[in-house]
Write a structure and sequence with these properties.
The chain has 385 residues and is an alpha/beta fold. The chain is built from 14 helices and ten strands. The C terminus is likely disordered.
């Protein structure tokens, strides 16, 4: 008779859903993503518009999360609402966020608040954003204002969401705003984002010593398209190191991993500047040399996001058993904080996402069936995968 080892999550484990301000609130017209949409960069021509109308009806979805037996909810604050012009704070926007956080508390849903989730005010973007080191102080000023006014309602902060994605898509591939393809600028932005996290960490720690403070990064694994090919193996190592492990090492030790360490200055006061690592995992990619793709620098990456990959995030993600141990072995050994969520931050539009993934995938705001399935699943013993 075969025996099954049953794994159970510990008491106090946080189960929840995640969102971002621009994707959910609606009516955000003063950030760089709104301008990007208006300039026609979304391939289907769609605009965020009212999105899921959280600015007026977020509590409806909070009730759904409570009904699904969640005990946490991650949301982000829209910097451009709170500081629409430099140095001018919108008290009505702050009051609305206080109402939202208080409602979460009343439902025993722990708020996990992201301070920068891809969007920033137009005035900040027009000053060259995080490409300009002097602008780090603007971000820290915003973080300080938020924590001073919301620390009675939140003690779990995410400073910056996926800095590696922000840099890669905005400054290497050019598919996110500001649409640049400039490696030198990308390195500068990555350095300044990591430094901004560190300075925000210490600002929050000063104001709220008991807070949990960290950042979230996408962890993407790259495998060689042909394991026998030294070129493919070298490419996989280079991409995975630069995208996934270099930013992690920079926050842990103050120095980026080789080869970025040869090109980028250290991060000041970085060691220990986090209470957890936020692990966002979506998929893995194969990568290899392709002589027929000069436009892609003779490199081929595949597969693109597809139904199988998205399902694997929720049901059976084998690479997590690689990501988690490697994260824990990183210098500093910070505690990981994992979340499973749908990712709707796409430049090819909502219709294209539904076409690729299937019409049965929804956000929480439109009855997330994945979340309902997840709520039933986690009442069962967790079997090894």
């Amino acid at each position: 008779m075969t025996s099954t080892r049953i794994l159970r999550f510990p008491e106090g484990f946080l189960w929840g859903t995640a969102s971002s301000s621009h994707q959910y609130e609606g009516g955000n017209t003063k950030n760089q993503w709104y301008r990007w949409e208006q300039q026609g960069h979304i391939s289907t021509g769609e605009h965020s518009g009212q999105a899921a109308n959280w600015w007026e009806k977020a509590e409806d979805d909070f009730a759904r999360a409570e009904h699904m037996a969640n005990n946490a909810l991650r949301l982000s604050l829209e910097w451009s609402r709170l500081e629409p012009t430099e140095g001018r704070w919108d008290s009505e926007a702050l009051d609305r966020y206080r109402t939202m956080l208080a409602d979460l508390q009343s439902r025993r849903l722990k708020p996990v608040v992201t301070l920068h989730h891809f969007t920033e005010p137009l005035w900040f973007a027009d000053r060259d954003g995080f490409a300009n080191e002097e602008n780090i102080s603007c971000f820290v000023r915003y973080v300080t204002y938020v924590v001073q006014n919301l620390r009675d309602l939140c003690d779990f902060w995410v400073t910056i969401n996926e800095p590696n994605v922000y840099v890669t898509l905005g400054y290497v591939l050019g598919s996110y705003p500001p649409g640049r393809r400039d490696l030198a600028r990308a390195q500068r932005v990555l350095h300044n984002l990591m430094q901004a996290h560190v300075e925000a960490f210490y600002a929050i720690r000063h104001l709220q010593p008991q807070a949990q403070i960290g950042y979230c990064q996408e962890y993407r694994l790259f495998d060689p398209a042909h394991a026998w090919s030294p070129l493919d193996r070298g490419l996989a190592w280079l991409y995975e190191t630069c995208f996934t492990w270099a930013p992690l090492q920079a926050v842990e030790t103050g120095r980026f991993a080789f080869p970025l360490a040869m090109l980028m200055a250290p991060i000041a006061h970085a060691a220990g500047a986090r209470d957890y690592h936020g692990i966002n995992y979506y998929s893995r990619e194969m990568i290899g040399v392709d002589p027929t793709s000069p436009a892609e620098m003779f490199i081929r990456r595949f597969p693109r996001p597809c139904k199988v990959e998205v399902f694997s995030v929720f049901l059976r993600p084998p690479p997590l058993n690689v990501v988690l141990p490697r994260t824990l072995r990183a210098p500093g050994n910070g505690s990981p904080f994992c979340k499973l969520m749908t990712c709707l931050g796409r430049t090819d539009g909502w219709r294209e996402l539904v076409r690729r993934v299937g019409p049965h995938m929804y956000t929480l705001a439109t009855i997330n069936r994945f979340a309902e399935v997840d709520a039933r699943w986690r009442r069962q013993p967790l079997l090894p995968i």
